Structure formats: structure tokens, C-alpha cells
Amino acid sequence: MIRAFDAFSLPLLRWFDPEDAHRLALHGLKFLPPPRPQADDQKLAVRAFGLNFRNPIGMAAGFDKNAEVPDALLRLGFGFVEVGTVTPRPQRGNPRPRLFRLERDEAVINRFGFNSDGAETVLRRLAGRAHLGGIVGVNVGANKDSSDRTADYVKLIETFAPVASYFTVNVSSPNTPGLRNLQQAEMLDDLLARVIDARERVRKNAGEAPVLLKIAPDLSLGELDDVVQIARSRRVDGMIVSNTTLARPTTLREQSRARESGGLSGRPLFRLSTRMVAETYVRVEGAFALVGVGGIDSGGAALTKIRAGASLIQLYSALVYKGLGLVEDIKKDLASTLLRTGRDSLSEIVGADAAAITAEGWPAG
Questions:
Q1: What's the pTM value of the predicted model, to 2 decimals?
Q2: 173 assigned to active site
Q3: b/e code 135-164 from CB counts within 10 Å (16+ = b)
Q4: Of the four listed, 110, 245, 282, 333, which is most buried by Cβ atoms within 10 Å?
Q5: Whether the predicted pLDDT of 276 surpasses 90
Q6: How many CB atoms lie within 10 A of CB 134?
Q7: Residue 2, class by beta-carbon neighbours within 10 Å (0-12 exposed, 13-18 middle, 19+ buried)?
């Protein structure tokens, strides 16, 4: 059924403006008949951040910004879904057009700017599906016009703690002016201190809610040193590496479209984001697990990201070009790799190539 859905929907959606196509895809998932549940290979199970994932493949934040279809995505085979970015108050985001396909590069540029239905609406949706289970994380961000952005994150932690499987603190979107400044050492330390304190305050009544930090791939290695040191000292539960990039590789074929402002994702981000996964992995020294995201479009790419240091991975842009069948393709490839190499779990290969990757030349810009 998924293959049939891809065969019908992928060519059709190309005829629409990218943002309209995204909206149609969400509507389609709402009305897609529930597929027959298919058990995942037990070797693909992952334990990270105190949570048990049935497989390592997640839907990245940005697709289901307002928690409209998390259960449809889980039924389609994702091991977890991350909704958001959610802001405290509703906001429209940046003016359209703000989403662009780079077809020949299998890439996407977006400058949405945290368009969000707001915390109240998203909370109502998540509360309504809480009894269904499954791992659904909440990616949180600040309103563009907020006078105290750190307070926005604290408020969202307090609001969503009863319904979030985990939180992702998004300080790395390039599309909200000044947001990436929160990755600077002093500001990040204050933010994480207040976020973790909020999580601890609500833990008694709301239960456990791991806190992950999502970073940009454009950090210098010195900045990454600071970020990891602060994340470890503030005892975050994990990191997501990485968000979209402001860089424009010279290898891009869609050069005119590449001049659009915003964050670049998809295949051209793969090498840079994978290098940042490896660099982060060697600095974390096993203190917590990593989620690798950026340019994963095949089982081989997923395996490379895991061997670079990612315990879990997330997809988004590749689905625009490969369709939802990509999820099962990756799972089959990972399971066959484990069978062929005589390993019992993915944890045995996490970070196996990290040191070697960090010794390579820096990915060409």
C-alpha cells in the first residue's frame, strides 16, 4: 500500500508549489487507510535517553509541525516521530514563498521561520492521542517577537511535559533572526540550566521527559567544544546533529534556486552533517546518545550516519524524492547488514568510524 501511495502521490505533488504539496501530503496521511502493522526486526530495537525505540528511524521535526498526523507516521513504520517546532503563541512564520525544491540536487531550502499553531492547539492534539502510545517527541522554539526567548522554552517544557516522550530544544534554526545566538556558550548555559530546572520541577507529576539539544552543522569546532561541554555539564539527555545549513556547496546543480535564503537540507547536507555527528560523538565520550539527521536517503547513508556516532536517525527531505517506502528500505538494509556481519544490535556499530571520519579532510564547501 505504501508503494502504491508513493507511486501515485510523488509525481502528483511535483505539480504543486512545495508548501501546498506539503499540506496535501499531511491531508493524505490523515485519510490514508491504516496499513497492516508489520513487526520490526528485533535487532533494530534501540534504547536511548531512557526510551525503548522499536527501530532507529524517526520523522524529523518540520514535517508535522502541529501534531496533526503523528500516529499515521508511526503506523507507516517510523520508530518515533518528532512534532514541531512548536512556539508558545501561534505565529505565521515568514512570508511565502518559503520552501523550495532543488530537484537535481535532491535538496530542499526552507525559511519557514517557526510557523506554528501555538502550544495550546498542539497540546490539545497530543493529549487526545496520548493513550495510543508510541514515541512522540516535541521540538520547542521561541516566538520571533518574544522579549525573553529562554522563558519561552521553559514555558513549553512545563506545558508539554505530561504528553511529550522527549523534548528537543531547537536553538539552531537559521530562519528566526538571532536564534542561533543561543548556541553561544554563556547564553546556552543559561538556557539549558533553566530548561533542565523546569523539567525537574514537573517530573514528579508529569513523569520522565528526556531533553535533547539540536545544533547547527555550521558551528566551528571550537564552538562545538563549548556546546558539548555545556550540554554535558547541564546533563542533557542527548543531542540531535544537525539542523539545516546556511552553506551552499559549490557542487549544487540548481545554482539559481540555491541563491534563495534559508536552510539547506537533503543530500548535499549529508557529508557535513555526518562529519558533525562524528565530531560530536568523540567529544561526548559516551555521556549520552546522538540522533543523526541530514541527507539520509538510503540504507547505506543510514549505516554511515550510525557508524559516525548516531544511535538514532531522522528523515525528512529525502522523503520528498524517495517517498515513504524509504523507511522500510532502510530498515531492511540495516537488518541485512547486521545479519551478514553476525551482530545482534545496531549498538555494536555506533561510532565505529567516528575517529576515522574526524581524521579526514573537512567536507568541501
A1: 0.96
A2: yes
A3: bbbbbbbbbbebeebbebbbbbbebbbebb
A4: 110
A5: yes
A6: 17
A7: middle
